[in-house]
# Entry
Amino acid sequence: MMSSMKLRHHMVYAVPPGAVFALMGDPVFRRTAATAQDAVSAEVEHTPHEQGFSLVIDRLQRTAGLPSYVRAMVGPTTRAVQREDWRDEHGASLDIEMPGTPISAAGTISLRADGTGTGTRAMVELDITATVPFIGGRLEKLVGAMIAAGMDAEHVLGVRHLEENP
# Structure
């Protein structure tokens, strides 16, 4: 029986949801955020549609610093392909695959006004699955921590970007 780990992660921005939506759809910002997270390379594809957009971030990341059992499985780098389909400024579907590995994540991103009238609460909810006998749960926790750290790093850059570019 295959199980998955549930990840819920929230971030707060001091701007309305429309501004966060625009930031998430900015391919230059998203490439900069990937580079700041020490990606070896990052390709960003942005496709507008109706009230939203689709975004694909294809990045190559180093595995240095990860446990040896992970490096033995994936090598010195690993590829992550993140697909976001933003229907509008309120939310998106989110899928992350790591080609060549038994690890994937799927879920949603939602943007909601925080009640102050000027801020946004961003919530990411993911099911992370690692189909590896015996160590799948450990891999899911590790990947969840890595995804959360990446979201936090992008959030810090995003807050700074929004402050500098009102």
Notes: The CA atoms of residues 102 and 132 lie 7 Å apart.
